[in-house]
Automatic annotation (TrEMBL):
The lineage of its organism: Eukaryota, Viridiplantae, Streptophyta, Embryophyta, Tracheophyta. This is PAR1 protein. The keyword Signal applies. Residues 1-26 form the signal peptide. Keywords: Signal. Pfam families: PAR1.
Amino acid sequence: MAFNISLRCLTIVAIAFFVTLQGTLGEIECEKLRHDTCAFAVSWEGKRCVLEKRVKRSGEEEYTCRTSEIEAEKQKSHIETEECIKGCGLERKSFGISSDFLLEPSFTRTLCSPLCYQNCPNIVDLYFNLAAGEGVFLPKFCAAQGANARRQMSEIKTSGIVAPGPVHSLQFTATAPQPVELTHEPAVAPFPQY
């Protein structure tokens, strides 16, 4: 009799655990994520989660996870794996979402490496869109690597030119970089074949 009660209790606990786990993993809400799983996660709505840090008057640091307005391409309810975080040269305590990392040659080498670029579609999609916002096509940027890639990013950084939306023609001044051929469709990050 005691064995049946213990088995029933264990079954109830197991079911409760799996329902909670399925609810947590099935419908990820950024605001409910811990700070060590927030960065590079995607909510159930397909919006990217961002880690924010606030310093209280006492000097104590407080971390919160928020839902950003940045949408992920083809990803929903996703917490990035440790393998991809490390393989792409990132850290869990990354605050906000920025294209600044693209200016660092060591980061771009790691991002463009087969370990990251071919195995971590969520991270590649994020940086593909950040690069596009800076006027850079990530696959071409990764193919350039080395001095050409650094020159391309430094020209973007110093020119102040923002990637334009789909337009029919652009006017360039003599000091602006050479025009880039634009399409009328938004660019989509390449998805690795598994």
